Structures
1.
Amino acid sequence: MKRTKINDIFAPELIGQKVLVKGWVRTRRGNKNVQFVALNDGSTVRNIQIVFDLGKFSEDDLKAVTTGSSLAVEGTLVESMGKGQTCEIQAESFELYGTADPATYPLQKKGHTMEFLREKAHLRPRTATFGAILRIRSSLAFAIHKFFNEKGFFYLHTPLITGSDCEGAGAMFQVTTLPLNNIPKTETGEIDYSKDFFGKPAALTVSGQLEGELGATALGAIYTFGPTFRAERSFTPRHLSEFWMIEPEMAFYDINDNMDLAEEFVKFCIQYVLDHCRDDIEFLAEHFDKELIPRLEFVLHNDFVRLTYTEGIDILKASGNKFEVPVEWGIDLQSEHERFLVEKHFKKPVILTDYPKDIKAFYMKQNDDGKTVRAMDVLFPTIGEIIGGSEREADYNKLLARIEELHIPMKDMWWYLDTRRFGTVPHSGFGLGFERLMLFVTGMANIRDVIPFPRTPNNADF
Ligand code: ATP
Ligand code: MN
């Protein structure tokens, strides 16, 4: 007999049919006449109730059917009397695949804290909460590919190992095969990287953007979607050492086109998840965050407010609010400032533009005022920065001057400058942190809980 996934079992036409389901036991309860098992196979947040008639099965048969054990059950699908259930399976036979000793199974009880589950990261996908999160994560990734594919963007695979240390977005993890207990040295006592695997220092990428620009200035519009690594010791609930980033890069887009795309993109993703992951979103809303669905709908139905950094600073100053980092033109905005603008002042997502050039990367297009660049950051309620982007400096001489001003080594930059030397075009792009978007759509509070296996300082096991 063919197995039916639990996600497909709630179809009215299956009532009265014989079915075979396989999964893991969430709970077993009952009395001396009948036992009820809630079975889940990961295909949906919903469990199917299996009814074991103790006239047909003995207590002894069911002894090893405990929380966490795995089963195949054959039986008849019938309409259910129990409230909240549409149907259940009257068991006729079952096979126990594997037991889960109640004395040692870590997820024996319900209602664990997220902190506890982080310690059991190898098993937490089996919980209802993480099942919901991981299914949403999968759908959201699919939505991202769908959005760009339908817009005619090409998916570009940029390298994870890079030989240029000037991506500028954060501290890097070095990649080396040199023996750390016996590092080869040159005559002058420096590390002899000519003996290293790539013949020079190499590191894990902090952003695919620079290579993305090579793609955009050839294919017209590309996006990357891959792992990104930052060796920063930040212990915030919004930073991971390994995270996934989506970086579209578009020829012939100015900053306004860029903002339009960013807004359309995040709205598409949110709508997709509401349409395709309704059960999971409702589960998370019910258990963690009653405001989740209204908040998602609010973002969908409102235009993002667009204003300049300078206007933003003026609002923060005039607010009279006391911030941990005092507000002054030129500061790098902290999450507290971003969230004030979004949650208290505008009560809408905000796109801030035209930041001081000193706090932004060298490749951003310089404005005529000599002080600001054509950057755009999208700021979201509860998250703060979710997207960082800009129109790129397309003028060879201006870009070169900025590179020299910042003492970025030319030996690393010649290939990037060639995009401006040959057939340069106005172009723009942005980076969206996949897990930041996941935080928003799931309502989770900690970024460690929206990625299957989080990597953070001192944590690379499970
Ligand atoms: P932040 O100020 O929040 O550290 P950033 O300015 O370093 O962000 P960018 O370099 O612009 O961010 O990266 C683009 C996007 O990648 C950010 O808008 C954010 O969504 C995401 N991002 C950046 N750093 C991390 C991280 N350590 N973990 C998860 N996502 C991140
Ligand atoms: Mn950062």
2.
Amino acid sequence: MEEPEVKNEEAKGLNFVEQLVKEDLQAGKNGGRLNTRFPPEPNGYLHIGHAKASCMDFGVAEKFGGTCNLRFDDTNPVKEDVEYVDSIREDIHWLGFDWGDREYYASDYFPQLYDLAVRMIKEGKAYVDDQTSEQIAAQKGTPTEPGQNSPYRDRSVEENLDLFTRMNAGEFEEGSRVLRAKIDMASSNMHFRDPIMYRIIKTPHHRTGTTWKVYPMYDFAHGQSDYFEGVTHSICTLEFVPHRPLYEHFVKELADDSYCPRQIEFNRLNLTYTVMSKRKLLQLVKEGLVAGWDDPRMPTISGMRRRGYTPQSIRNFIDTIGYTKYEALNSVSLLEHAVRDDLNRVATRVMAVVNPVKLVLTNYPEDMVETVEMDNNPEQEGAGTHSMPFSRELYIERDDFMENPPKKFFRLAPGQEVRLKGAYIIKCEEVVKDAEGNITELRCTYDPESRSGLPGASRKVKGTLHWVSAPHAVDAEVRLYDRLFEVENPAAETERDFREMLNPQSLVIAHAKLEPYAARLGEKAGEKMQFQRIGYFTPDYDTRPGALVFNRTIALKDSWEKAKAKA
Ligand code: ATP
Ligand code: MG
């Protein structure tokens, strides 16, 4: 057999899943076909963990020239909704993956699954159990003790068929009966102890309406759906390892030697300072603790997009952490590093003062306005420049001034000189305060010779500050986002409810002064900007001409790591 060609030339080595796939292809399994699937349940928005799974499912297919299906695993109408279907499609496309015309739904297979269940009943492999879920659970046993057989286990085929048909006709209440596989109540694998195949649900389904009153359980639906679709490699996360024998057991009802799907598991993505459970994320949304699934603090793809993360940075992060066979908790700092790294490449440099204080150059002519040319992006050749007005009245960052500075404070202080980036050297001569003692204005002088192109241009001072011209500045709301939780691993804290661990500083609203060019960019959704010396920002969906709103994607430096290092 020839070596399967690796289509992606950049791929440096294969991860363990790719290695297994390659071996199967080399062995000629499934006629040499490769078909994966990404199987989200449309019961919430995708989060970064799903991005990891998509990168795997679509990535392997791309690497070996196979295909990847998008399959909505829509077997529970109670929790599912078309809103989620639409958001999932959008998010996968945004990440850069495409499933072509291979968009499928587990609900498409309800007829075949039902037929298979009927066949299994006829073959004595399934039975209707009239017990409550509590009774069934009580008979399950423990990993070291066998379970007990249900009193309904040996019903006749006729009675089972009749009851199952009537379950689906809506004759019985939810929870009153289930269909179970007749396997082995003493199996050492708990999943083999007569697992439930079907339950009664009367909520209409978002695609099949009221056609069905019985719905298949994950274990009875997933492998079979893989089979019906021609999936060869069903890649999922480690919690499904104990389900694998059951996956294989059910799939054997359909498959033969020429084609049989195979389940392979990798480790989930868990991130520090957030939660990844869809149930908890839904709770945050429903209780209004965040502004929605796409709140920029959420670990969702849509939240990260709104916050200004790039798809490339997410994919780079996932490449960095890789795929293993053991669970881990990944540091969000790694993700943030990937975000900074990518934004540093693509973001347009502008000036904005987030917490402004007025600065007046007393020796600068009243009506004079000069223009300063600023680089749009020194990291990108050909990114060009834009001009920025300079005048007698400016704003600088309040934090860049200290009245009684410590020794190594190289920013502005009484009698101290700094350079205004791209412009002149200035010196602070006087501090003006209001009745409460708040600084309202800094009165400074400038050195007219110190601008680039003039004799004093090379004069060195220790600090360089960003600034904007006050009469030209445009106001904007800036939303300073930080980590959603204040503890590293909220999911591991058993004593407290996860909602008590939310970071009260995760959103701080500030009012900034922007240079005119930044304001123009701010009218455009999706624009990536660096507010120099502050961080990376992007216009929020709420931004409007005349009422600009920016999200801080990420600060320039990782203040959390610094704080931890100090502690
Ligand atoms: P649920 O609790 O609703 O089942 P889920 O997070 O497993 O939630 P699914 O929609 O079933 O969500 O997941 C779709 C795919 O994404 C599955 O293959 C699942 O294994 C994978 N996946 C889900 N969470 C993660 C994660 N944190 N890291 C990696 N893959 C994940
Ligand atoms: Mg799941």
3.
Amino acid sequence: MTPVAPTDEMSSFEAVNWFFDQSARRLGINEELQELMRHPWRELTVSIPVRLDNGKVKVFTGYRVQHNGARGPYKGGIRYHPKAELDEVRALASLMTWKTAVANIPFGGAKGGVVCDPGSLSQSELNRLTRRYIQNIAHVLGATRDIPAPDLGTNAQTMAWMMDAYGQLHGYTPGIVTGKPVELGGSYGREAAPGRGLVYCLEEWASLTHFPIQGTKVVVQGFGQVGSWAARLIGDLGCIVVGISDINGGIYNPRGLNVQDVLAYSLSHGSVVGFANADAVGGTELLELPCDILIPAAVENVIRADNARRIKAKVVAEAANHPTTPAADLVLQERGIVLIPDILVNAGGVVVSYFEWAQNIQEFRWDEDRVNQELAVFMKQATQGVVETAKRDNISYREAAFSIGISRVARAIELRGFV
Ligand code: NAD
């Protein structure tokens, strides 16, 4: 394929494939194999009729995209979002393929989505929606076929409903989903895992590159499962969180925010906005605040070619999935801003999902210390691989991470002998 110059107007799937193509070309992967790795292996779109509390029936649309299963069962979260769409789900499924390969866990990549606004549905409506969605996609799921997990708008409760709906069809199968409540076979440490994994990754990267991380100022966009844990745990590295935002806006204090207090405030008020001892900042402005490390932990495509020129951080650690467009990625590179990519930084979530699945299969439980210790091992090894590859081949960390992921998937396809 002829390389095209990236733009912010690319769709999400085009953007992920732009990164894929860049690395696959450099690795010299043959065109036929590239084609097989670029496209999802299976896509399913389903209609989900749900009786609402007011007695009316509403038909929702749901997706499950299985991008690549060469290295193991398909694995990836399910998001409930009003703007969930097939192209985005494809992009996220593809990222899962490269992420599980970079983390070196025995899974392929998948993603799912339901077009809905979970905030406007009651718990019983969400329960019915979830059950019907799982019934409609159950024939492509399985603990050795495809294992969903939470993502934006879904949580441990959603996973409990999914496990129950699948169990009604196939019998008790805790390994069918990860991110479940601990009482139903969930793993200790799963909720904190993407944030904790980010901290292990940054710690290893700083040590390998001699980056003085102690005392650095951090801004976190998004204060949900990933962002709130990243903000809570990054203090362990001696970092100071100076800015935090959620969908309603942001707060900034250059002397540092007390993250536990922000969390308590956000839980009682439904947002970080209005927190005392901080200035109010807009969501867009937050990304451009003076800081050392910027952690986008909310949604995709927030760092674009135009605002990338105004980012003041020295390091961008992508906790969200594809928060940076390929055009912005080039701008950050030109400006010498270090970018540590999503498929490495936020892999902690799927690594602990792997531990949960493995514990479910063995009908055994690890304590939280063991989960965290094993997570540290996986995150540090993955970080070392990316840093070493980037240095050896004189490429960006993103290109290095994609190269490692693509090489592992290509090798698995070759060994299986199905092309
Ligand atoms: P979440 O729903 O728990 O939290 C999302 C947060 O982002 C909320 O605080 C929300 O208010 C905020 N937000 C939404 N839109 C925003 C905007 N435009 N500007 C600023 N803030 C905004 O979701 P999450 O599970 O924390 O996921 C966040 C990101 O991390 C997503 O990209 C997701 O795909 C990715 N991720 C999640 C996991 C996981 O296990 N949950 C693992 C890896 C990656």
4.
Amino acid sequence: MATELITALDVDSESEALDTVKACEGCSWFKVGLQLFVRSGPQIVTTIRESCGKRVFLDLKYHDIPNTVGQAACAAADLGASLITLHASGGRKMIAAAREAVEGTDTRILAVTVLTSLDDRMLRDEVGLPETAGEAVPRLARMAVESGAHGVVASPHEASGVRAVVGKEALVVTPGIRPAWAVADDQARFTTPREAAEAGADFIVVGRPILKHPNPGEAVEHVLKELRG
Ligand code: C5P
């Protein structure tokens, strides 16, 4: 499938979110994360879907006991979220519970492996993981997909390695994208939309380069053009 663009709605209110959705007409997918979800409530998902006709990636990164995650996955499916996230480190039973809860719906589950904000020293000294991120990411990605996740979130630099372990059917979603015309912000290791597509991403997630652009709709068109090569 051609790589799709997801615009991250990292804003503080429903009205800002809906203005952005309207301005970004060319984009079919929007990500609702913790910031917007906690401020605006779950109805933002149904509004984007039903009133704007767009698809929603609900990025709440679930990590809890299997029963709770299963119930929360069911709730996200009821809202009509097309993609949801959970932490692979919650383990096989938690991932399987989420998968069981969305069976028969159009909701797909993505696993987050190791947050890119964690480096190898933090993983060892703070989290207590006896592996580097480079070792943990493919191991967790494989385990998550074997346990029922439909795909994984990966940095563009990890995308091809992750693809090799999860197979071609699994979804690979990459944030950390900066088009050549955008400033880097706090993203230290990023790639362009085209590079992410070439690394095998099914979806790229782009936030600030679109949100902070004087004309977000134009920024979307630039990214889509670059994706289509
Ligand atoms: O940096 P930008 O504004 O494009 O970020 C887009 C989205 O990707 C944000 O919602 C951010 O939380 C998410 N993200 C990221 N880097 C990661 C994982 C997620 O930028 N490694």
